[in-house]
Amino acid sequence: MFNNIRTKLTVSYLVLILAVMVLTSFFLLDNLEQYYLDYQSRAQMAAANMVAEFTAGYLRATPDVVAISNMAESFAREISSRVIITDHRQRVVGDSLRVGGLVGSVLDRPEVELALADGVGFSVQYSEQSKQHVMQVAIPVKSDGTVLGAVFISSSLSLVYRVLGDIRLFLQTATILSLFFAGLLGIVFAHRITGPIKSLTRATELMARGDLTVRVNIHSKDEMGRLGDQFNNMAGRVQAMTRQLREFVANASHELRTPLTSMNIMVKTLRDYPMDAPEREEFLKDIDNELERMTHLVENLLDLSRLDRLATEDTMQMVSVGSIVESTLEMMKKKAQQKDIDLSYSITKQTAKALIVPHQIKQVVFNLVDNALKYTQPGGSVSVTLRQGLRDLILTVADTGIGIPPQHREKVFERFYRVDKARSREQGGSGLGLAIVREIINHHGGRVWVEDSMGSQGAVFVVTLPLAGDELI
Ligand SMILES: Nc1ncnc2c1ncn2[C@@H]1O[C@H](COP(=O)(O)OP(=O)(O)O)[C@@H](O)[C@H]1O
Ligand SMILES: [Mg+2]
Question: What is the pLDDT of residues 141-161, one digit of tens each?
Fold first, then answer.
């Protein structure tokens, strides 16, 4: 039962409230009682002193019991107490209580004994007889240093204790009420906290079982709400990544199957049908082409999976990007010539350095220029520029080829995406070239996109690479 947050929260809430209320009540009542008693005793003492002063004259000669009692009565009325005066042998010579008073008898009280010994008698007791608390004070009546008798004042504390009792009752009621409301509030509050936790727990369980469509519905604006949002974000990303992965595997299998199927047919044909040498040579050449395409595809797949691994083994180096671009282009010059395409480049800042993995940047330049040559007709041109921006190096590859319609410009970077599948296959493309480019550029902290060619013919690819600190202008 105590194993859930809700109960734990509510119980600790209640215990706290109870502790605070009990402690407060205790201190409050205790202090009030002290204060009242203090006040009362001071008042009684002052009255006793006054009575003693008045009585001193009466006690010197033979005490006039009636006069003393009259005086006692008038004082008693004044302070709502009982006033008794004794002589030095504890015999009562005046009592404010006229009917049933103690005049003539001996007042055998420890307070009076103390007063007669020139001290002060004081006590607070519960009187069984009158069923109430009483305060008693006795002080000596003195004349010229001799103790002549004692003044004994006794007053009821019932009013004080009744007030204290009322306050106690009030505090008890308040405690019970606040426990009740705190409990209620605790339950509601705990419900608001544990509700989202429960739905998150359920959602993670479902997700662990493979349901990636689960989302939680937490609307609060606090930490719980943020946790819920984060969960939904994460679930969304996991779902998207899983879908991408599935698509990737399906696409890759499909791409591998196509050349396999045609090779299968060609091998069977070679085996089953008699052919002359040139014909056989033709078939073997086709098989060779398919094999090359497959090798290329598998190489690209391996490249991608290597790039997917977060910690790439390739270490970055501080090198001049210009010379890497230049050497790659020199290597591709021949290919351009074969296709009768004019490949030109302009590198404005040859020495600008950036933190890169050289062979990866080579591959980026190669893939972009390879595409430009592939999708440009003979007689066209491809121009490459490398210049320095404020914070990065900017590489552009522009051609005069068929171009890329705006709606495809984002998608060409997806794996296996091709604007014209048949045409790409014809050219030996796998649809992975630009995916590899984007992956590499992301690793380098740069960006790559297809620029709007502003109505002119062809495609323009732009790549940015962040400059190293001391190269910044
Ligand atoms: N320079 C370009 N001109 C026109 N289309 C291009 C160009 N570069 C890329 N594309 C389009 O983008 C697609 C994806 O390119 P890529 O990933 O390199 O795959 P592949 O070249 O193997 O087909 C290509 O199939 C093509 O449709
Ligand atoms: Mg390509």
Answer: 998 889 999 999 999 999 889
Residues lower than pLDDT 70 in the chain: 1-2, 310-313, 469-473
Dump strand ranges (E) for 254-368.
317-320, 342-347, 353-356
Exposure string over 143-157, b if 16+ CB within 10 A, otherwise e:
eeeebbbbbbbbbbb
Of 163, 181, 199, the one marking the end of a domain is: 163
Which of the ligands is closest to the CA of residue 427?
A: 1
The ligand 1 site (C-beta within 6 Å) comprises 367, 371-372, 375, 399, 401-404, 412, 417-420, 424, 429-435, 459
Token readout for 297 is 């595809």
Whether pTM exceeds 0.70: no
Q: What is the dihedral of CA 33, 34, 36, 38, to 10 degrees?
A: 160
The reply to whether 42 falls in a domain is yes
Site to substitute for ligand 1 among 294, 332, 339, 371, most atoms within 8 A of C-beta: 371
In a domain? residue 173: no
What are the angstrom distances between the C-alpha of 242 and each of 60, 151, 180, 245, 309?
114, 100, 51, 5, 16
Determine the structural domain holding residue 286 and report its residue range: 223-307
Q: How far does the centroid of ligand 2 lie from the alpha carbon of residue 205, in Å?
A: 43
Nearest CA to ligand 1 atom 18: 433
Ligand 1: distance of its center to the CA of 349 in Å?
Answer: 28
What pLDDT was estimated at residue 383? 96
